[in-house]
Amino acid sequence: MGTNKDAPFPYSIIEGAGMGYAVGLLGSSTYHFLKGPTGARLQYLTMKAPTTAGTFAVWGGLYDTISGGLAHIRHKEDPWNTIWAGGITSGLLALRSGLRPASAQFVIGAALLAGMEGMMILTERGMTHIKEASRMGPSSEPSPEWLRRGYGDRKSNDDKDTSPPDMPNFEFK
């Protein structure tokens, strides 16, 4: 869910709750429609979907509150805020069941959000690599020679391409 960087802190809580409700309503409508009894699927959907969507809204609002509070306390906006906010939110919502289930939910929530943050960081690094490669141009593409070396197809020095490299482009983009 994450905090919207454009919205100020109090509005991001409302936005998080609204997004949680929307996601919960969309997902639970599909789920409860398919799960409902054959003759009364729409009635089952209208009974169950808003309740499930409300729990998603509570999770989203509490998550954004804690995430914004951690960012304010730490004076940093980094993945640790997201991980801690996910764990604390899951733990607080499970606190009604007792301390042991709440601590288990804390670990599960933090682990899930750590996994999502890790995937986002890896994706961001990959996209940065692609942007840098496209900025350098087609002459900087790696040759598949490293692949051939591992499989025994070795080139002799006579077969090497000795043409000079392309002229550098000094245009500033």
Question: Can you tell me about this structure?
Answer:
By secondary structure, the protein is mostly helical. It has two domains: 77 residues, no CATH class; 55 residues. Helix content is 69%, strand content 0%. It contains five helices and no strands. α1 runs antiparallel to α2, α2 crosses α3 and α3 runs antiparallel to α4. The longest helix has 38 residues. It is elongated and about 75 Å long. The model has no long low-confidence stretch (mean pLDDT 84).
Key words describing this protein structure:
single chain; 173 residues; mainly alpha; 5 helices
Number of self-contained structural domains: 2
One letter per element, helices H and strands E, the order comes to HHHHH
Structural shape: elongated
The class by helix and strand makeup works out as mainly alpha
Please estimate the helix content.
55-70%
Could you give the distance between the termini? 34 Å
Strands, total number: 0
- The radius of gyration computed from the alpha-carbon positions, rounded to a whole number of angstroms, is 26 Å
Low-confidence stretches: none
Number of helices: 5
Largest sheet: none
> Mean pLDDT, rounded to whole units?
84
Sheet-strand content, in percent, reads under 5%
